Amino acid sequence: MKIMADFTSKDIAAMYTAKRAEAVAELGRYNLAIFGKTGTGKSTLINAIFGQNIAKTGMGKPVTAGLEYFEHPDGILGVYDSQGFETGVAGDSVLAQLETIITDSRNKPLNQQIHAAWYTLRWSDRRFEQSQASFVRRLAELGIPVIFVLTQVPINATGEYHADAVELAEYVESMLLPLSPANSVYLTNALPDDFHGTPVHGLNELLDATFETAPEAVHNALTAAQYIDLERKKRSATKIVKGASASALATGATPIPFSDAAILVPLQIAMIARISTIYNVSSSTSQTATLVGSLMLASGATTAGRWLVSSLLRVVPGGQIPAMAISGTVAAGLTSAMGYAWIEVCERILIVGSIDEADLKEMFTAEFNKRLGRGMSSHD
Ligand SMILES: Nc1nc2c(ncn2[C@@H]2O[C@H](COP(=O)(O)OP(=O)(O)O)[C@@H](O)[C@H]2O)c(=O)[nH]1
Ligand SMILES: [Mg+2]
After folding, report:
1. Mean residue pLDDT across the chain
2. Least confident of 43-47, 168-172, 330-334
3. Mean pLDDT of 250-262
4. I want to staple 165 with a disulfide (CB 3.0 to 4.6 A). Which of 153, 231, 286, 358 is the partner?
5. Atom 24 (ligand 1) nearest CA
6. Please, which residues have CB within 8 angstroms of residue 220's CB and are 6 or more apart in sequence?
7. Which long-range contacts (CB under 8 A, 24 or more apart) does 316-325 make?
């Protein structure tokens, strides 16, 4: 039987590494296909929404001529990128091959199916050809939701799109293509264009549309893979904390004094690992694992003290039932304080982009103590 003080930083780090792998596996994978002519801004769009991780893995795996597959290092996102094929004969051959891939993937687990396609058109091309329209129709016939994206669209200081872009979007809409959501064209710009004063815009709307077309089972993978909607990450992470906190409450029912930590610590580490996965915090876990180890122990003094009190109460004759209730509440409060503090840490890592251990430790401890004070009265 263990109390928190019996866990070393190394134990915790090792446990974290294992739980992190489980959390990743549990998330599954979101697969996106992206089409459009060379130079429309496909790679730029992917990088703007999913970070540099995808590109960083280096060359994609060639799937067929003209189609490459890129995978997130954690495997939570796959991108089929149509590297530089144009419509026409080459497009037809890609479509034929794509059809085979899609037909095959229907019998495969959800993780291996293509969940949506972004069809990109650069506004400044000012034209949308019949061959492109038939490509979109064929894609939709294969059962893939097609989201239509107009790229590199200038916007002025008052928020108006370039008139030619609006005209092109209206033209595409007038063709009544089988788009998802119905008849929508997304106007975007993925790189700030200082020369024209165009900021990044339209990416959140595009991401929302992508979520709308995604099966519920891959929402968490998509939430984790994207970098631009922190609110979504926070909502998912909050659910994880609430779930862990509810399980911690149940540990109070364990009639054996002092056994809590043996159950509770793995449960809390699993929670922390799941949150890290949602925030896409470094998959090279060793640094993060060490951090988790030291943070958990930093909060451990308080934690062990409270457990001890609630656990000791159980050995008092007649004290068992109330002590169990107290113990569960204490466990739930500790767990949620830990979870919310870790969410703050993950947000910081994501925004700052690096891990300064001393800084994060101070932040975690402050958040943990703040929430513990609050959490003890209502563990939420
Ligand atoms: N201003 C601006 N430039 C972009 C945007 N997207 C792409 N570009 C530029 O267009 C060129 C082609 O982009 P890239 O993403 O490689 O296109 P891909 O061939 O479709 O993958 C690059 O020089 C990008 O910097 C955008 O949203 N805004
Ligand atoms: Mg590219």
Report:
1. 84
2. 330-334
3. 64
4. 153
5. 41
6. 27, 28, 236, 278
7. 320/255, 324/252, 324/253, 324/254, 324/255, 325/252
